[in-house]
């Protein structure tokens, strides 16, 4: 569905816009017929868009991100399928599960640059300052590469100790050995992984969510194909087992970074970001990016560590491993609802950043609330499905009656908080697009560490509600986080933030 465009000025009607990106900024872009150089033109007054036009604009940006998230969800499920059918399936799943946790932590750290890149590129795009957007992209690429190499090197040197701590090498020697094999290969592409996240952030800042979708099709296809060939040794390839899974993942990342760089150079006005004059890192720009992005990365790390602590508490409840298994089933089923929330969060981030760059805070607020409304609507529908179809959802993942009962309880309790999860996700994305990333981090720390964990302990062990108490705590703190984010957004401080 095309995004509505402002009507061109009379003097511009004979001149097509060569850019594949729809400017939310109210500026006219021109490309020199002689050399193809990007030329910034004076801004024109911002037209007032109707609610229907705003909603169409949001939807056009959101749906490709939703599809991208769906692809990643399918990708993770296929990983489990391929590795789980190896003869040493339990050990292989444990090894790749721990490896996947390390990968998620690295992606959380990479968000420190990705979120900063989106905010800056969107703001400059909205203001029509494409040279600044290009420079911000180049600086982000170099910073991400250096950070990726640094974190990758540190994790690589400590991979044996890291796996030993997470898998208890004395109790699970085979799983620990396979885990080291997995990390030894996967950590070699940490630099490209960080680069790919920075490039994804630049495309989102431009308002382009379709290119990341097309690239995801290629990376996921590469990953699944290489899994089938390398894990089992088909079509003449060697049977590599867990090493094949790590190799397939690494190859898909290399394919992804190659396609992103090609798309950046051929399909965007940011092609010059690959020149050394933009790549040569400057301290003031590195700080400018990290000042926005580090709180967002910290927020992801805080949430990850809190969930690890929550899972450890759940393992000590009366249901033990059954409760942990039910949590994994619930989260997997609930991830279907995360997809629209994530997609609308990306749309809100891009539109808010571009609108603020165009000095149009009214449009920024309209776009944020439109994205939030659509997300809450979709996630409320998903919540109703969770509640009514909780039993077949749980039965699809396990035949254990105890785990099924706990999973059904999880889905029916957490169905009530899905609309509030949508509130929190989308408005947090809007705040990040404005460059306001520190205060949402405070909300995450408060709700996850100061409320959820103590409340879970009290409900589980003092009131003896066990897993049921854990689910109640999850739902209550998700509702609290959503409402706190609404209050933070409505305060309007984000409209005055400088990036």
Write the layout of secondary structure elements.
Elements: E1 27-31, E2 38-43, H1 51-84, H2 89-127, H3 130-157, H4 159-167, H5 173-186, H6 190-206, H7 210-232, H8 242-267, H9 276-279, H10 283-315, H11 321-357, H12 361-388, H13 390-397, H14 401-414, H15 418-433, H16 438-462, H17 466-490
Antiparallel strand pairs: 1-2
Helix pairs in contact: 1-7, 1-11, 1-12, 2-3, 2-5, 2-6, 2-10, 2-11, 3-6, 4-5, 5-8, 6-8, 7-8, 10-16, 11-12, 11-14, 11-15, 12-14, 12-15, 13-14, 14-17, 15-17, 16-17
What is the string of helix and strand elements? EEHHHHHHHHHHHHHHHHH
**First and last CA, distance:** 31 Å
> Largest sheet, if any?
2 strands, antiparallel
pLDDT < 50 runs, ≥5 residues: 1-45
Please tell me about this protein's structure.
The protein has 499 residues and is mainly α. The protein folds into two domains: 71-281, no CATH class; 303-499, no CATH class. 76% of the residues lie in helices and 2% in strands. It has 17 helices and two strands. A two-stranded antiparallel sheet has the order 1-2. It is globular.
């Amino acid at each position: 569905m095309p995004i509505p465009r402002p009507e061109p000025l009379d003097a511009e009607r004979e001149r097509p816009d060569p850019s594949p990106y729809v400017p939310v900024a109210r500026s006219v872009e021109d490309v020199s017929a002689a050399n193809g150089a990007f030329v910034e033109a004076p801004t024109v007054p911002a037209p007032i868009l109707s609610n229907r036009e705003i909603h169409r604009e949001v939807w056009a940006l959101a749906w490709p991100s939703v599809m991208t998230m769906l692809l990643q969800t399918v990708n993770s499920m296929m990983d489990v399928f391929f590795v789980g059918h190896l003869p040493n399936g339990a050990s292989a799943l444990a090894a790749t599960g721990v490896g996947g946790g390390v990968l998620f932590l690295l992606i959380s750290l990479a968000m420190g640059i990705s979120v900063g890149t989106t905010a800056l590129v969107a703001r400059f795009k909205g203001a029509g300052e494409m040279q600044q957007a290009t420079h911000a992209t180049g600086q982000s690429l170099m910073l991400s590469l250096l950070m990726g190499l640094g974190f990758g090197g540190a994790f690589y040197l400590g991979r044996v100790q890291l796996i030993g701590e997470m898998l208890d090498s004395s109790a699970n020697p085979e799983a620990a050995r396979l885990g080291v094999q997995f990390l030894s290969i996967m950590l070699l592409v940490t630099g490209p992984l960080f680069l790919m996240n920075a490039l994804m952030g630049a495309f989102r800042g431009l308002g382009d969510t379709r290119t990341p979708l097309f690239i995801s099709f290629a990376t996921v296809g590469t990953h699944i194909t290489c899994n089938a060939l390398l894990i089992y040794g088909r079509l003449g390839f060697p049977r590599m087992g867990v090493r094949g899974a790590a190799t397939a993942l690494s190859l898909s990342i290399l394919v992804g970074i190659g396609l992103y760089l090609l798309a950046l150079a051929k399909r965007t006005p940011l092609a010059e970001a690959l020149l050394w004059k933009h790549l040569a890192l400057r301290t003031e720009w590195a700080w400018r990016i990290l000042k926005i992005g580090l709180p967002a990365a910290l927020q992801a790390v805080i949430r990850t560590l809190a969930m690890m602590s929550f899972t450890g508490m759940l393992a000590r409840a009366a249901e033990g491993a059954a409760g942990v298994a039910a949590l994994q089933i619930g989260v997997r089923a609930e991830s279907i609802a995360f997809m629209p929330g994530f997609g609308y969060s990306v749309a809100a981030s891009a539109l808010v950043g571009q609108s603020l760059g165009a000095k149009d805070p009214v449009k920024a607020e309209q776009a944020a609330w439109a994205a939030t409304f659509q997300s809450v609507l979709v996630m409320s529908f998903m919540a109703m499905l969770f509640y009514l179809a909780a039993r077949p959802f749980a039965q699809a993942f396990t035949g254990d009656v105890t785990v099924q009962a706990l999973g059904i309880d999880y889905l029916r309790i957490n169905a009530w908080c899905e609309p509030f999860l949508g509130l929190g996700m989308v408005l947090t994305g809007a705040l990040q697009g404005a460059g306001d990333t520190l205060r949402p981090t405070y909300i995450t720390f408060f709700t996850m560490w100061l409320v959820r964990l103590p409340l879970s302990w009290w409900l589980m062990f003092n009131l003896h509600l066990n897993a049921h108490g854990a689910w109640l705590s999850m739902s209550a703190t998700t509702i609290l986080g959503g409402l706190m984010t609404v209050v933070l957004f409505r305060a309007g401080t984000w409209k005055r933030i400088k990036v």
